[in-house]
Amino acid sequence: MPRSHKIVYAIYIVIWIILAIHPRYRNDWLLENVLVFIFFPTVIWLDKKYHFTLTSIILLLIFASLHSLGSHFTYAEMEYFDPITQFFGLERNDFDRVVHFLFGLLAFRVLFELITPGIKHIGTALFFTFTVIVTISALYEILEWLAVILFHEELGIAFLGTQGDIWDSQKDVASAIFGALLNMVFYKSYVKLLL
To answer: I need a surface site. Which of 2, 36, 63, 78 has the fewest CB within 10 A?
Structure first.
């Protein structure tokens, strides 16, 4: 693994440790970080095996850092997003929606790099990456709901962060889809420039 990748991983570990100190709701923080405990070692293993580009690792670091910020404050109560909420006159704190959008935007490249070697046609690889983003996003919403029901039902409002929006899960998935669609347009344009 390149030294630059190790530096990026070390930066994320430092960010994660800082945001693990005195989170707003400890039990909520634990639930939010179950996936981090699973996926961070998995990403390192995949990087060693498939040799991701530095760009994809940095994009993943940005997304993971924002997730850590959301888990520290809870997505619904991420106070540093309040000025944006007030500026645009929004009824709720949409930090979670922005992070779902950024999942589709920022995680796309690393998934594309995983998928591309096995698929010769670029359009097929882009579409398959898009469907993986949509699937992960939808599964996350289902797992989030199940985690609340099975483990900490009293944390439901803080963990789910619906803020009274009955369509919150659907809007979160739609946000990830929009981020992934932007990637598809970008990659198709980029490939045309190369040809």
So the answer is: 2
Two tokens, residue 24: 């707003």
The pLDDT value given to residue 34: 82
pTM of the model: 0.83
**Which residues have CB under 8 Å from 69's CB, separation 6+?**
19, 78, 80
Burial profile 81-97: b = 16 or more Cβ within 10 angstroms, e = fewer: beeebeeeeeeebbbbb
CA end-to-end distance (rounded Å), the chain: 31
Amino acid at 63: F
**Domain spans of the chain?**
3-194
Q: Kindly state the average pLDDT of the residues 108-135.
A: 87
Of the listed ranges 40-44, 106-110, 156-160, the least confidently predicted one is 156-160
Contact in structure between 119 and 87 (CB atoms under 8 Å): no
Per-residue pLDDT at 161 exceeds 70: no
